[in-house]
């Protein structure tokens, strides 16, 4: 079996563009002020298992790869390795609103 067959698809490359990331960052306050954030509890065993691997934790929680960076951002991490075992609550931005932002970004980009 080839290693690449084990990899999960990352999705549309637009999710990883600087423009989309800037759009999400610019809506940070909106998410917080309009209850577009939920809290996800992480049990101690899971938090310990994924110490230093935030993306691994998000995989285990079944979040698609294209939501990993926004969730990382809203938790104020710069890298997946910043996650520590003593963090047992994770902030999750509303993925429906993230989808709306993506559609807005794609529409605006297509008009340019």
What can you tell me about this protein's structure?
The structure is a single chain. The chain has 112 residues and is mainly alpha-helical. The chain has one domain. 46% of the residues lie in helices and 9% in strands. It has 6 helices and 2 strands; from the N terminus they run ααβαααβα. It has a two-stranded antiparallel sheet with strand order 1-2. α1 packs across α6 (95-111). The longest helix is centred in the last third of the chain and has 17 residues, at 95-111. It is globular. The mean pLDDT is 91.
Q: What is the secondary structure topology, with strand pairs?
A:
Layout: H1 18-26, H2 28-33, E1 37-41, H3 44-49, H4 54-60, H5 68-74, E2 89-93, H6 95-111
Antiparallel strand pairs: 1-2
Strand content: 5-15%
Provide the succession of SSEs.
HHEHHHEH
Structural class: mainly alpha
What summary fits the major beta sheet? 2 strands, antiparallel
Distance between the termini: 43 Å
Number of strands: 2
Number of domains: 1
List low-confidence stretches. none
Backbone shape: globular
Our Rg estimate from Cα atoms comes to: 15 Å
Q: pLDDT average, as an integer?
A: 91
Spatial strand order of the main sheet: 1-2
Tally of helical runs: 6
**Percent helix range:** 40-55%
């Amino acid at each position: 079996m080839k290693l690449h067959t084990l990899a999960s698809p990352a999705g549309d490359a637009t999710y990883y563009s600087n423009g989309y990331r800037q759009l999400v960052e610019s809506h940070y306050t909106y998410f917080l002020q309009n209850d577009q954030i939920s809290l996800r509890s992480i049990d101690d065993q899971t938090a310990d298992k994924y110490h230093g691997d935030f993306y691994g934790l998000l995989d285990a929680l079944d979040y698609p790869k294209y939501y990993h960076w926004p969730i990382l951002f809203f938790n104020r991490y710069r890298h997946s390795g910043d996650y520590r075992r003593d963090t047992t609550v994770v902030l999750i931005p509303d993925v429906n609103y993230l989808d709306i932002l993506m559609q807005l970004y794609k529409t605006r980009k297509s008009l340019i």
